[in-house]
Amino acid sequence: MIREGLILKIDCPDRAGLVAKIAGYVSEHEGNLVEFNQFTDAVRSRFFARLEIDTSGLKVETDEFVRGFGTLGRLLEAQWHFRRLPYRMRTAVLVTKTDHCLNEILWRAQLCELPVEITSIIGNRDDCRLIAEQAGIPFHHVEIGEDKEEGFRAIDRLLTKQAVELVVLARFMQVVPGWLCAAYKGRMINIHHSFLPAFVGANPYRKAFERGVKLIGATCHYVTEDLDAGPIIDQEVERVQHYHSVHDLIRLGRDCERSALAKGIRYHVHERIILDNHRAIVFPD
Amino acid sequence: MIREGLILKIDCPDRAGLVAKIAGYVSEHEGNLVEFNQFTDAVRSRFFARLEIDTSGLKVETDEFVRGFGTLGRLLEAQWHFRRLPYRMRTAVLVTKTDHCLNEILWRAQLCELPVEITSIIGNRDDCRLIAEQAGIPFHHVEIGEDKEEGFRAIDRLLTKQAVELVVLARFMQVVPGWLCAAYKGRMINIHHSFLPAFVGANPYRKAFERGVKLIGATCHYVTEDLDAGPIIDQEVERVQHYHSVHDLIRLGRDCERSALAKGIRYHVHERIILDNHRAIVFPD
Amino acid sequence: MIREGLILKIDCPDRAGLVAKIAGYVSEHEGNLVEFNQFTDAVRSRFFARLEIDTSGLKVETDEFVRGFGTLGRLLEAQWHFRRLPYRMRTAVLVTKTDHCLNEILWRAQLCELPVEITSIIGNRDDCRLIAEQAGIPFHHVEIGEDKEEGFRAIDRLLTKQAVELVVLARFMQVVPGWLCAAYKGRMINIHHSFLPAFVGANPYRKAFERGVKLIGATCHYVTEDLDAGPIIDQEVERVQHYHSVHDLIRLGRDCERSALAKGIRYHVHERIILDNHRAIVFPD
Amino acid sequence: MIREGLILKIDCPDRAGLVAKIAGYVSEHEGNLVEFNQFTDAVRSRFFARLEIDTSGLKVETDEFVRGFGTLGRLLEAQWHFRRLPYRMRTAVLVTKTDHCLNEILWRAQLCELPVEITSIIGNRDDCRLIAEQAGIPFHHVEIGEDKEEGFRAIDRLLTKQAVELVVLARFMQVVPGWLCAAYKGRMINIHHSFLPAFVGANPYRKAFERGVKLIGATCHYVTEDLDAGPIIDQEVERVQHYHSVHDLIRLGRDCERSALAKGIRYHVHERIILDNHRAIVFPD
Question: Closest-CA residue in chain D for C231?
Fold first, then answer.
């Protein structure tokens, strides 16, 4: 991936000449197309693309280049989104008790594998405070009590105040209310500890154990108002045997969860995902 | 695995000294224990084991050795099963239209990877006749028409007449009636073209496509009266991308189906599976 | 993939505006770009692309469109290659004794997973004759005796006479002489039964067993004059345990071999591979 | 796995009646065999077994039970090893610069997934000091300068003083001298960042990139005097594409390294490995 420049994501009704037109716009302004990914959904006749543009040779200001694209975009009846590099996405991580997913995110952020700026860690329990503090990140304990709405309004205020672009539910064990899902549509990522759509809801490892499956999994997906039904970004599985207890499944599943969540966040912050209704188009790196 | 000798599968309530007692019986009679697998289900306090016994040095007749085990078996309140090697399990394969699973079975049987004697191939359509004939195996076309029972009674008569020990549903696209499932309990293996319990029933690849999953799979399981709910023997998965159509999923899924079914049959005919209610204990090789 | 139209593969020195120019050429002539894959090797500053073009709306004859591209291609100092669809690639399969890879190819060709026309099966032993005949494909037994060159000249004559575009070594257990490798450069595919570059040469499963590896593999690659050193197309692995004998490794490895070879051929005949010296750029489907 | 009791590992020349004799000893003393794993190497005619024994019902002292086994052990010409549970293995971790493997070990130790007591972290550079300190573990910076022996003698003194049972090379970028390998034979575990035996020695990711492999890997193995040639415990792989740079391979490989090393340590500290010359027999959990 380029370190400086622009990422453009675009989707529009399919028609002949789209690649030529879009790449032509970049070329006319002497941008250099470094990576180009495209997908045409033949069934729905819709075009999706992601471009990485080296802007060092642009003959106009980057802002003007971005603004100027609007004419073409509107002509194509497109939805589009530019991201200027370098950037680090402002991200809040919501947790409850277990810390393996949080740990993974912190470690990868530190390594610069994930270009995020973690604005805060928000827990409905206090368990992850120490980890947050050791990483030098503010921790907020927001209890979700009898009146759940109250707790979520407090969380919402924190997210707004911190100008968060991405919310990661890193084994956050509360159902997020519909209004908050809607507010962060396409910007709230969850890790579910099963191979969706198998074992929706609570205690998936117990259910997996009882069903006697031979593979367990984890699913990273966008959160929507329908529980565990949002667009899937990544899924990971691990083989299990008859001698594995529920406790073993939980242990083995942690590795699936860490891996799927890390990939999901990576694709999102690198702007490698375009949502096509309930499906996630992912151009992996 | 040994080529000549005995396989013993046994399960009984757990108690101290079981391994010593069972291995002791073998040792007393100068059998040689070549492979020993054991599993104790701590939750249900039940013991499961599989033994491969080289009988070349037995100081009694093999039949007497087998018969004599009854005293110990009854003492332990065990269920047990001896299989004399070498053997080839009499197997009928039920098919409909697609032949990839059938092909896989025939190929592995020919290579002696699967010690089966395929007594016949039974199709509710005529599509697989040529393959059967090229392999030199009798093919029966049994139509499943309006009165489904009639068709299944015809199939049942064939199975009985051929003294079939194992029935393999190799993409057989009909729901087997409860009475036939019951008659072949623990001896009828199906391949379902999804990662169960996701996408039970018809058209799982279409459902998987619509859900936007990132992994598809296949599940080999014993058939019970509850559709797609029997004990799981093996599951295989394949990664898919947004650009894969339903047709692609069907193509990629074929490889999962072939692989899962072949493993499932292998474990069964090598007596490597002990059923523990709705779970399959598999000692893989 | 499209069923009718053109595939264009192209590579050239990287410069700004390449995508716009190439897609522009298609667009000008009212071709419709259905799939576009691109890769820029930043280290070597070289551009690689593959285009699928729906030609049903072309305003010129397809031949003229192809011919006309030459002007642009030369300007870009490119290498390019057009393939007209539908087509089936004329393919010869070379075998020795084992038939699992051959079987796999025949089965996938029959299913139309692999758009190949198998012109003949050539064996340096007679073992695979029956399979060839059952599939209705000519079988040639060409002995490779004391004077190996003589045998290979006979094979070469067959390939030439049959106007073969692709040669598949499906567990062909002879070292192909350099002059024949050179003649089919980029058009001869081999399956090696190890995870290259580990265990080059003969008896890789025995070497793997002796080294005590925990994963075995198979590698599908283009054949070059250096034994087992050609560009790698696909690699598959399978987990093994301490209890697996060399014989078990051979058995488990067959599945890797079949899978890797089938993928390799698929990518080649669908024109999804561009060779970049000793590396294979693969745009998978 | 049991929490209290004994693990017994044993290997001896194969003969009839071994399981009966060994299990018989446990049974006679009213120990309860909770898990029993066995492997017979038919080629070398050698027997290997691992037993988990619940000692709560033993009719003698555990020490006496262990001592008393010697009579049988000597009779069988066996090598054997008892481990009393619960225990935490005293472990030193050697590091250089990168911290991902260290991090993984610390995280799993904290979660009690790895029953180790980390006595210290020893670095030939100072980079990992902060992590060690945050985890509350002593960090020793031991420079390996011109006279490498001097550095390694200092490390050896630390290991001895701390009564270390296991040495983990967690991306320690120095070749350990033969005398130190010998001193910790079967007790020093390394993670090599390639799929051995491919890419022995330095810069395996660069070599993998240059060879154009389609899978990269990591190997966890015991350290012997022959570089990267010790018995392999676990190997993990990850699929790579033509667009992955060396830098990407390093990134993706980290996940293989973490996973393979964590599994290797787990099997070792749970006494699930028996060394059979240059091969590791692993009874996984």
Answer: D212
